[in-house]
Structure formats: C-alpha cells, structure tokens
Design goal:
Length: 220
C-alpha cells in the first residue's frame, strides 16, 4: 500500500497529515536553532511561503515549504564572515537561482534536470546534506531505536501503520526516552503561548550574495 495508488479515507489522510506535521515542524524549527535564527520567524515565513505557493500553483502540488538542511553550514559560515543581516541578503540570490531553474524546467522540461543531475550525482549530495549522524551522536541508543522502528514498520507493517513509519519511530523513540532517560520539558512549560517573530532586516552585501549562490544547487 502506498500513497500513489491508494485512495485514503479522511481519517487516514488526517493521520498521515499528523506524521507530516511532525516531520516538517521538526525540520523547520531545527535549522534556525542550529544557525542562530528565531524559530518563530522560520515558522511564520514557511507558512506564508507555502500559502503563496499553493495560491500560485492553484493547489495542484501538495507540498510544504520549510527549512533546508543544505543551508546550515553555509549560513553559519556566512554569518561569521559577513554578519547575519548580510547573509539574509545573500539568501535572496538563492531565490534567483530557483527562479532561473524553474524557468529552465518550464522551457525544457524535467529532462534537463535529469541530464544535469543524474542519480549518481543526486545520491552523494543528499548524503552530504543530512545531519542525522551529528544529531544521533547525542544518543545512539535512541537514534537506533527510532530508526529501527521506522524501518521495521515500513517493511513489515500492513494497512494504516505502513503509511506512518516515521510517526511510529518518533513515538517509540520518545517513549524510550521517557522511560530510560531524563526528558527536560522545562522549555515547553516556560514558553509563551503567543510570540511575535523577531525579524532581521537584510543588509546589502555582494560578497554574501555570491557566497550563497552555489548553495542553491544542492536543494535543486
């Protein structure tokens, strides 16, 4: 059973949606935490960007525009060299690259992407983007429990469970953390119910602009 050949009931759609919420929320929040940005700003801009995308594409592509792990190291380095506000300006160059690639695909079709980025190129790039190893180093036991659960559910489960292996991995890993390790929930208890994003105005910088341009190739 997979999402491409199965018509899901409203309940199953809701459960699969919850799984995606965990995946997308974690990634969207983790990236700004690692690079020194405000997570609430990332959530706000991701939401606005996603709504604009669905408006432009007329809801034909079910996608969420969140944070990309490919930008973690470049943003950290660019911030060290040019400052955060200049780095944000540099990220506008990434948007221009996406616009150019979109125009190229619209003109030539997806075949041009397959020629420029064959599987032998895509695979290693995705491996280099992933930060799972660094995160797993904090607790290999929990990481392996979560990963093992997701793999087993994906391979062996049937019906609804087979659709939510990531959600199962998160749930089992969290329960293991509660029973065998200390889980600090003070940050959740102390967090404000409502909080405005902390916006940072970009500063013009050609150096940061050029520095960030090659980074756009990885997500493409």
């Amino acid at each position: 059973m997979n999402l491409t050949d199965t018509t899901l009931s409203p309940i199953r759609k809701g459960i699969v949606g919850v799984q995606f919420l965990f995946v997308a929320f974690g990634a969207t929040v983790l990236v700004p935490l690692l690079v020194g940005l405000d997570p609430s700003t990332a959530l706000f801009t991701a939401g606005i960007g996603t709504l604009i995308f669905h408006l432009v594409s007329k809801g034909e592509v079910p996608i969420f525009l969140g944070s990309s792990f490919a930008f973690i190291a470049p943003i950290i380095k660019a911030t060290e060299l040019y400052g955060l506000s200049a780095t944000l300006f540099g990220l506008t160059g990434v948007g221009l690259v996406y616009f150019a690639m979109s125009a190229l695909v619209k003109w030539q079709g997806l075949s041009v992407i397959n020629r420029i980025f064959p599987p032998v190129v895509i695979g290693p790039v995705i491996i280099l983007i992933g930060t799972g190893v660094q995160m797993a180093e904090e607790n290999w036991v929990l990481a392996l429990i979560s990963l093992g659960t997701a793999v087993i559910v994906s391979l062996k489960a049937k019906g609804l469970l087979k659709l939510i292996p990531i959600f199962c991995g998160i749930g089992v890993g969290y329960l293991a953390a509660l029973f065998f390790y200390e889980v600090d929930l003070s940050g959740v208890r102390e967090a404000a119910w409502f909080k405005l994003p902390k916006f940072v105005h970009p500063t013009f910088s050609w150096e940061a602009f050029v520095f960030m341009l090659p980074v756009a190739i990885a997500p493409v």
